[in-house]
TrEMBL record:
It comes from Paenibacillus phytorum. It comes from the Bacteria. Keywords: Membrane, Transmembrane, Transmembrane helix. This is DUF2512 family protein. The chain crosses the membrane at residues 20-40, 52-73. It holds the Pfam family DUF2512.
Length: 88
């Protein structure tokens, strides 16, 4: 399940938002997406006994991890600009 979230975050946030915005905006988008993702999984797929606050904490932890990932990728802009069809 976390792998699905990381892949969605990479495609939706890192490839779109991070290229045209700042690290803070991309991190807030990641936190929002993580919150919605875990809330929907809790609500519709699994009958987890976690509440709103627990989902928010998990989303914030995910956001902290993503903040440092964005900082790492922004240090070397070449890594962020590469894609699988690159000649490099």
């Amino acid at each position: 399940m976390p792998l699905i979230l990381f892949l969605m975050s990479y495609v939706a946030i890192d490839q779109l938002f991070l290229r045209v915005s700042s690290n803070v905006i991309a991190t807030v988008a990641d936190v929002g997406m993580a919150f919605v993702f875990f809330w929907l999984v809790k609500k519709f797929f699994f009958d987890w006994s976690i509440n709103f606050m627990n989902v928010a904490i998990v989303a914030l932890v995910f956001g902290i991890i993503e903040f440092f990932m964005h900082s790492y990728f922004q240090k070397d802009r070449g890594r962020l600009d590469r894609h699988s069809f690159s000649d490099n």
